[in-house]
Amino acid sequence: MSTIAVNAITDANDGNTTTINGVTPNSANVVGKNRIINGNMVIDQRNAGASVTPINGTYVIDRWKQYQSAASKYSVQQNAGGVTPPAGFANYLGVVSLSSYTSSSADYFTLEQTIEGYNVADLGWGTADAKSVTVSFWVRSSLTGTFGGSIKNKSSGANRSYPFSFVISVANTWERKTITVIGDTTGIWLNTNGLGITLSINLGTGTTYSGPAGAWAATNYLSATGATSVVGTSGATFYITGVQLEVGESATEFEHRPYTTELQLCQRYCCIPADGSITSGAVIATGAAYTSGNNNTPLYLKVTMRAVPTLTQNTGSGYYVYYYNGTSSSTSSLTLSGASTNDCILLYSGASTATGAALDLRMNNANAKLILSAEL
Amino acid sequence: MYKLILDPTTNNIDVVKRIADNAFIPFDEANTDYQEYLEWLAEGNEPEPAD
């Protein structure tokens, strides 16, 4: 076996079309370059494409969270308005303003994705070796002008932020934007399963949380000063997709990952083990009665989650049914216990199941739904 | 408001229920809901006891 140790391999014309076993590796096809998950807005586990008027601090499309200082100023929907996405994409996240709201200085309206610390540890932020990153995305709005956003930390009191601006030149037309951010050599940037780097897109933030574009600041800016407010115009639309954050000082082609890969990346943060709207009678899992009426069903998670997850659920009379010993009974809700990042126990009681009875737990209503969340 | 939840099999309390939305929150310091619960406790609040 021989070893090649060189600084560069280029083609005969000093270009970048060299092939290795028929493959041409370049910056556009490096696997894992995009640190944003669901940047193409294809995964929408919670709402399945339905429009929502979210409350403050909740997730909309997978991995995308929004914050609002005043309620009901916008709706969010995967593919809102039904416009044709930019070439190469099938989905986008759409925000529609529901009123003409004048933001006060302390108001904030923002769409965010926080990247887990593990996935940005190599950037070296907070050290002298901090690497630059480039953010790119496709955006379309009924408004034109200068818009804003920021890159920031959220640990240690959110005390480092880099506001940026971008211009939308033509209304109702997809435009691709790129922003390069010099790596932050100071501040605390987690490299664990906690809050890593947050990308914030402004929807109408006031002056308190807006700062000069293009420079690091030791405070929590969500946007560049003077940015256009989406919530300021009733009916205004703001659509975004193809969001990518990558190492380097130039934007490369969006990394299209397989659907299954994207879904599994999302499931580290949000997993829906049962959704009656998809298959109302589907099995959730099988278990056993520890003692009479003390029913346990272990649930093995699809991927290892970021943290031990919270269980939320849709509840209602008879939403969940369990079969045992040739009969069945139902329950309106399930209780979480013994959870880890890999599994949990669903508890339910009611019928006098015999000790040791095998249990087949299923959904029993189209509205039944279990959500396990380990979001950041 | 929160309520502690007893696992009748293990007799352990390792989950708290957030009453507002019936969310079952495990005792894991990396869980953001549990972090909020800890902040609520630090303000001097107390959860309802387990049944």
What does this structure look like?
The complex is a heterodimer of chains A (376) and B (51). Chain A is mainly β and 376 residues long. Chain A has 2 domains: 210 residues, Jelly Rolls (Sandwich); 104 residues. Chain A is 2% helix and 36% strand. Chain A is built from 1 helix and 23 strands. Chain A has a 7-stranded antiparallel beta sheet, with no helix packed on it. A 6-stranded antiparallel beta sheet of chain A has the order 1-2-5-10-7-8, with no helix packed on it. Chain A has a 5-stranded antiparallel beta sheet with strand order 3-4-13-6-9, with no helix packed on it. Chain A starts with 57 loop residues before the first strand and ends with a strand. The model of chain A has no long low-confidence stretch (mean pLDDT 94). Chain B is of the alpha+beta class and 51 residues long. Helices cover 22% and strands 24% of the residues of chain B. The longest helix of chain B has 11 residues. Chain B is globular, with a radius of gyration of 11 Å. The model of chain B has no long low-confidence stretch (mean pLDDT 96). The interface between A and B is medium-sized, with 29 and 21 residues.
End-to-end gap of chain B: 16 Å
| β-strand amount of chain A | 35-45%
Average pLDDT rating of chain A: 94
* Radius of gyration computed on alpha carbons of chain B: 11 Å
Q: Which architecture of the largest domain in chain A per CATH? A: Sandwich
Strand fraction of chain B = 15-25%
The end-to-end distance of chain A, rounded to whole angstroms, is 47 Å
Summarize the helices and strands and which ones pair or pack.
The complex is a heterodimer of chains A (376) and B (51).
Chain A: E1 58-59, E2 65-68, E3 74-78, E4 93-97, E5 109-116, E6 133-141, E7 145-152, E8 161-168, E9 175-181, E10 195-202, E11 210-211, E12 223-224, E13 237-247, H1 259-267, E14 270-275, E15 283-291, E16 294-300, E17 310-314, E18 320-324, E19 327-331, E20 335-337, E21 343-348, E22 358-363, E23 369-373
Chain B: E1 2-5, E2 15-18, E3 23-26, H1 32-42
Antiparallel strand pairs in B: 1-2, 2-3
